[in-house]
Task: structure prediction
Amino acid sequence: MDDVIAQEIQRELEQHTILIYGKGTRTAPQCGFTVETMEFFDQLGYPYEVINVLEQPAKREALTKMTNWPTLPKVFINTQFYGDTDVLGPMRTKGELQPLLEQAFQTKA
Amino acid sequence: MLTPHTLTEYVRKVLADAQVTVTDRTGTMDHLNVRVVSDVFKGKTLLDRHRLVYQALDEPLKDGRLHALELTAETTDGS
Result:
């Protein structure tokens, strides 16, 4: 993987506790699932950043390789990869997500 | 276009015992809700379960027959 892109991704992951790589931006999302993921975190009341990889094919490919996950959006919490709402939804139902988010935001504060 | 039958065959290449239920969310058979039940998932995290299904559906995802997928991946006892 191209080092410049890998370093850029690493920087972005460290900058944002919840990071959604998706299609479109926070103000102009271009995919239902990106919107769904934003709403998921809105409901939980946690801030997040959306990074549009539609116009950055090299970064999109690097992320796919790095996570072994072919689709978008891709969600990272505290630099760890968690897939998308298909994974985060059941985690929330099982009560695993809330403590994870609380702890993630505490280490940042 | 991808039929539920073809999709089930793809999944069964990786998860031989899979029970697959497909719901077409938009009528164009490329935005699907797919529920996969297989005991190969036992002991695997949700991420790895979904990775197995994505691996099985790699071809239709790459050639565009499949755009958006909402996945559920459970074992036969529903865990």
About this structure: The two ends of chain B are 32 Å apart (CA to CA). Chain B touches chain A through 13 residues (CB under 8 Å). The CA atoms of residues 13 and 56 of chain B lie 7 Å apart.
